[in-house]
Amino acid sequence: MKLAGFNQLPPEQAQAVLAHCVAIKRWQQAMVAARPYASLGALCQQARLLAQEWGEADFVQALAAHPRIGERARGEHKEAALSRQEQAAVGEDAELRQALRIANQDYEQRFGYLFLIRAKGRSGQEMLAELQRRLANTPAQELGEALGQLREITLLRLQESII
Ligand SMILES: NC(=O)NC1=NC(=O)NC1=O
Hints:
Blueprint: H1 3-8, H2 11-18, H3 25-33, H4 40-51, H5 56-63, H6 78-86, H7 94-111, H8 124-134, H9 139-161
Helix pairs in contact: 2-3, 4-9, 7-8
């Protein structure tokens, strides 16, 4: 949608446009309240600024909308379609999918939440390598990295939604 159109939508509709960028209501509502945006640059700057406020609770809330890496998102809602598109690089390599499945389990046992990575632009092998690297992080380090990836996914989706 065009920025001018987004600026003029009623608040609930404007929030619905942002809903699939990240499942954090506080962020969606603050983004809507800060309209009108003079440019796409201002929109993205505000999105980044607000995303700096995210903590563990926000992160856990957002994870519900992200399927595991290597698992095909089910359903037809927009997040599922976006996830399938973003994760397309994982491809049909059965060995890689199995390795991702095992590494995801190790990760979830260690950190207690699912592994999140900005999948767009990364091959399946690169994501497996990142998963294995990040397994060595301390919980505090890993929350920082994972929040950074959530921010990247959110900005990518925002930039695809409002042009
Ligand atoms: N667990 C995940 O990292 N999921 C995802 N990363 C993306 O970039 N899209 C997803 O669905």
